[in-house]
Amino acid sequence: MTLAPNVYDAEPIPASAKDEIERLLNSGDLFRYTSSEDSPVALLEREFAEIMGAKYALAVASCSAALFLSLKALDLPRDAKVLIPAFTFGAVPSAVVHADCQPVLVEVKDNYRIDTTDFEAKIKNADAVLISHMRGHTSDMEVIKRLADARGIPLIEDAAHSLGTKWNGQNIGTIGKIGCFSFQSYKLLNSGEGGVLITDDADIIARAVIMSGAYEHNWKKHPVLQDRFAAWQNKLPLYNTRLNNLSAAIIRPQLNEIPRRVKDGRRNHDYVAAALNASPHLVVPDPLGPEVRAPDSIQFNLVDFSNAETLAFQDAAARRGVKVQVFGMSEDNARAFWNWQFIGEIPELPQTRAMLMRACDARLPARLKKAELDFVISALAGAAEDVKSPTLAYGT
Ligand SMILES: *Cc1c(COP(=O)(O)O)cnc(C)c1O
Predict the structure, then answer these.
(1) What is the block-wise mean pLDDT of the chain (396 residues), using blocks of 10 residues?
(2) For a Cys staple, 182 with which of 137, 160, 299, 377, CB 3.0–4.6 Å?
(3) Is 196's C-beta closer than 6 angstroms to any atom of ligand 1?
(4) What's the CATH number where 314 sits?
(5) pTM value?
């Protein structure tokens, strides 16, 4: 019998990180700007930009810091209206508020992607667009980019959880003007904390680098268009939200692992998704046509469940060894927009609310093996049967 898989632990950090970490510990060289060039953070930026096919990268303390700096680097007016999906992590509207902007929430459909009709209505009054590819689900970037470009307003991609996803063959995070990624432990690359932003725009990277804390002439250690930096000298605040060398040394050996983690994560997800879709009670929404996903978790909707049945499903799955969160059903959930009281008045968003009340979330790391996936499938499908047709319940 297979035991319930541990879905919380990350993969071990590649052993090749150890020599570099020991060198850094022995020298105490932890600050990215101590050495004159080629610090581990600078090397990570160069390598990440190359992998993504972007001109510039800036590594920072978190994806939230990357989102905040992106908005600041765009030089938006105070109280600028920034469209974000109503289904995202609470750190996203927080980054908007932190940048002295106002988040405007856009309805999300029951496939977890932006409702483009509501988006089109709301973009008329917007100054910028920040698309969160929540849980790696890509909204219709063709429509979103076309509408943003038509209005001449900038598009930022929150690709925190989307590293490795492709849209029409293009890397997610390179469609908008700026793409932001996370190195927090639940993401594809893990240094505990950390983030990176990428862009092809020389002015944006120059402004973001300075504001991230490249004080005095530390920007000279960024091997990109030096004249743009000089233009912004002493004109921007220093928010000091840099990445340190240890974190970079932990990430760099993981860059080679990206293709395998993406491939295994997608294989695991698609195997479980096909099995769950065989249950009349569970639906895993299809990806959009141009989208090739890089999932490390699975989301699915409960079909015709009451609130009481939804809670019973959560309990039944837990009894069978698999923890499921229903985004809208757990108290103080950071992904339920009605809990974001810091943004001011919370709008009515019935479509997103209905989705959040039935949308389930379970982790599905790339390292899981087939027997563990079968355990997850039988727990989830079995839990649905426990609730909907207890006499037919199978498996244990
Ligand atoms: C994890 C995550 C964030 C926040 O990333 P941090 O690096 O923890 O700040 C933002 N958006 C999405 C979609 C995420 O998954």
Answers:
(1) 83 94 97 94 98 98 98 97 98 98 98 98 98 98 98 98 98 98 97 98 96 95 83 96 98 98 98 98 98 98 98 98 96 97 97 98 96 98 95 57
(2) 160
(3) no
(4) 3.90.1150.10
(5) 0.96
